[in-house]
From TrEMBL:
Signal keyword on record: no
One cellular component (GO) term of this entry: membrane
Membrane-spanning intervals of the chain: 6-22, 34-53, 65-89, 131-152
Molecular functions per Gene Ontology: metal ion binding; UDP-2,3-diacylglucosamine hydrolase activity
UniProt keyword Transmembrane, yes or no: yes
Name the UniProt record assigns to this protein: Calcineurin-like phosphoesterase domain-containing protein
Keywords assigned by UniProt, alphabetized: Hydrolase, Membrane, Metal-binding, Transmembrane, Transmembrane helix
Residue ranges annotated for the Calcineurin-like phosphoesterase domain, each copy included: 178-346
Pfam families found in the cross-reference section: Metallophos
Organism: Nonomuraea aridisoli
Amino acid sequence: MFVLIFLGGGLLAHAYLWWRLVRQTTGPGRLRRALTLCLVLLFATLVATFVGTRMGLESWVAWAGYLWVAVMFYLAVILITLEIPRAVAAAFLRLRSRRSAPVAVPALTGPAPEQPEAPAPEQGLPDRRLFLARTVAVVAGVGALGTVGYGLSSALGDPVIERVRVRLPRLDPRLSGLRFAVVSDVHLGPLTGIGHTERIVRMINGLEADVVAIVGDLVDGSVARLGPLARPLRHLESRYGAFFVTGNHEYFAPEGPGEWIEELGELGVRSLRNERVEIRHQGAVLDLAGVNDVGGASVGDPPDFAKALGGRDTRRSSVLLAHQPIQVSEAARHGVDLQLSGHTHGGQLAPFNLVVGLQQPVVSGLARFGGTQVYVTRGAGFWGPPVRVGAPPEITMLELGS
């Protein structure tokens, strides 16, 4: 269903781009046919890239296809934004044209005076509407390419280190200062190399955290294809260990998340599968729990809050790892003090963050729901287009305070 919706939306976007960028900027002839063919090929590239990567196939068109997704998105956004100014300009040109048109006045008597012959329009001077359409097309093209270029450098650059202090009212004062390195949505896949993982590990180790929390969507493929890209995770350093919970992308592989759970265990990363552990720090205890992603319900591996949090000493503070922010409502019912999540990418491509906000209670940052706080990281990688606009990649250094 998701594939059909995505491809249907892509088809509509290409039809709109053809109307605005081809049909209204060119006349019948070779140029229009060539530009139409170009759009058809770009749509075919998009389909090949998206379907191929979803099927777990390496696609040599992945870079071209995903970059075109980003350019297409911003072309459409800019053109839609310019629709009202364009309509106003077109109305002004029509009004001006009517006012400047000569008005014939019949003579009262005698033969009509000879009218001077109107000067012929200059050869090659484009029609005003054609000129307006081409101007809008150039503005949209330059804006889209500039935005995607900026977003490409952001997505492929170093993640931003966000330092956040979260005060938990029930926290034992001895646990104050406990530090979590939070990372999510690394998305190891066909567009990332081993250097992507090595950089993230190096930056996390530089934080000297007490706990490393990987909150889902680590991979976009099978262990057989992407196992080598994950191996630098064996070098993660922290006082009390590195922990992982599944995201929705871990369930996209035909074999499910089981192979990755086993692989991560061999790399020294413990998966919390609807379970909890005790973090003992300076003589005090914190409950660290993790639940499966909601996407696991479709394959018989759902989140189980009762199993992860049931029977614990409620006088202790608790931190929950849950991939999607939407899980905070259930966390609040179980008395969780702090939930750490990802999934949203902070929107990844502004203004898509406005759409994400319709589906998730928090797009990024810290928020409170009753007695439970949730911190949502923007993620350290990207999904689909290697582009981030308005939502730079992030690794979070989160410190607890009482």
